[in-house]
Design goal:
The longest helix is centred in the middle third of the chain and has 20 residues, at about 155-175. The protein has about 260 residues and is mainly α. Strand 4 (about 125) and strand 5 (about 125-130) form a beta hairpin. The chain has helices at about 1-15, 55-70, 80-100, 105-120, 140-150, 155-175, 185, 195-210, 210-220, 225-235, 240-245; strands spanning about 30, 35-40, 50, 125, 125-130. The chain starts with a helix and ends in a 14-residue tail after the last helix. The strands form 2 sheets. Strands 1-2-3 form a 3-stranded antiparallel β-sheet, covered by helices on one side. It is about 55% helix and about 5% strand.
């Protein structure tokens, strides 16, 4: 039966694997949900890979097809650079933000992303850290070059420590992905700032700037109807937004609750 034969041919062609003769036989499709072009490397032994542009996806398809033609597995064989490690770590962090069961909010994600970008732009011997291979990082580099450069690039040692912490987390992820054997940031011996001592020193410096003569000078130049606000701020330390939120409350008169 011609109809039956045609249907059988259609079914056979549908279930038979597609012959891969060039990189053009590898599917590249736009995935609207994540705003990326997705390259399907499964026909040559790989997986799915996302790209920002179709040109990048096509170029990667060419490279992977060449590896496939030579008889090697179509997997990424180049070691990660720091830039690549950050890219993979950020992608993983985005998945954590999207997971309601993971206690990782968008604020943490934004801060880590910012800290890692600041780390990546540091240069050593004329080469940006982003271009260094993760596997080439060692304890001596972290102790003698990376940590001092972080401190020099920030206003406070606490900010440097926060960036160091984000970078250490990224290296943990690289260890997990077998790009480096150990987390060199965790075993590096760096002198970390004591947050408690820094806070006490900051308070002492702030208190030294305030003296009764200065306060009286401020009050003498404030309009009469604003003096109570200034005195209240001086005595309580509350800022303007916090003062506005204060409510008058009398436990003997529960109906009294005004701003």
């Amino acid at each position: 039966c011609p109809i039956g034969f045609g249907l059988s041919k259609f079914i056979v062609e549908s279930i038979m694997p597609k012959e891969i003769n060039s990189h053009r036989n590898l599917s590249i499709r736009w995935v609207k949900s994540v705003n990326t072009f997705q390259l399907d490397l499964r026909p040559i032994g790989g997986g799915h890979k996302n790209f920002k542009t179709k040109a990048e996806a096509t170029q990667h398809a060419k490279e992977m097809f060449e590896i496939f033609e030579s008889g090697k597995p179509a997997t990424e064989i180049k070691p990660w650079t720091v830039e690549k490690g950050i890219e993979h770590y950020i992608a993983n962090a985005e998945r954590r933000v999207a997971d309601p069961d993971d206690n990782y909010g968008p604020c943490s994600f934004t801060k880590q992303k910012c800290d890692l970008n600041n780390c990546a732009k540091l240069t050593f011997d004329g080469l940006a850290l982003a271009k260094r291979n993760v596997a080439d990082l060692d304890v001596d580099f972290i102790e003698e070059e990376f940590w001092p450069a972080l401190k020099a690039d920030t206003n406070t040692s606490v900010t440097a420590l926060n960036r160091f912490g984000a970078f250490r987390q990224m290296i943990f992820y690289c260890v997990k992905r077998k790009q480096i054997s150990v987390n060199v940031c965790s075993i590096a011996d760096i002198k970390k700032p004591n947050r408690v001592d820094l806070w006490h020193n900051k308070v002492k410096k702030s208190m030294a700037k305030v003296n009764p003569d200065n306060l009286q000078l401020i009050l003498d130049n404030v309009l009469p109807h604003h003096k109570l606000k200034v005195l209240f701020a001086l005595e309580t330390g509350l800022r303007i937004g916090e003062q506005v939120a204060v409510k008058i409350f009398d436990p003997k008169n529960l109906n009294l609750a005004a701003l």
